[in-house]
Design brief:
Elements: E1 2-3, E2 9-11, H1 13-22, E3 26-29, H2 33-38, E4 45-46, E5 63-66, H3 71-82, E6 87-90, H4 93-99
Parallel strand pairs: 2-6, 3-4, 3-5, 5-6
Antiparallel strand pairs: 1-2
Length: 115
């Protein structure tokens, strides 16, 4: 785990996958609806960046935030940290997730694509 210049935790796709599998983490996808519908990590919750501070977020496990490249998820993690909500973001986002061969699904479980 690395930290950005603002002290926000950042993880690789491999570390994120491990957190989801082994630590009961909850994945929050902060992209826009069309991006999410095209392809997302199976089981991810969709909360666009514009609603992240007002969303009812789960408190049952660590929050892992993802977007297409890592920029929006980093911003979302910083916004949550400023409100005392711990979260990490995925460096490289969905592009790196898909490039690592990790699962991406579209609407209704079909094969997904990162747009």
């Amino acid at each position: 785990m690395r930290y950005d210049s603002h002290g926000t935790a950042r993880v690789t796709t491999t570390e994120a996958h491990r957190l989801l599998r082994d630590a009961g983490a909850v994945l929050i996808d902060v992209r826009e609806t069309d991006e999410f519908r095209a392809g997302h990590v199976p089981g991810a919750r969709h909360v666009p960046l514009s609603r992240i501070v007002t969303a009812d977020l789960p408190d049952t496990g660590p929050l892992v935030l993802i977007c297409r490249s890592g920029t929006r998820s980093q911003r979302a993690a910083a916004l949550l940290a400023a409100r005392g909500v711990p979260a990490v973001d995925v460096r490289g986002g969905m592009r790196d997730w898909a490039a690592q061969g990790l699962p991406v699904e579209g609407v209704h479980g079909s094969a997904g694509a990162v747009i």
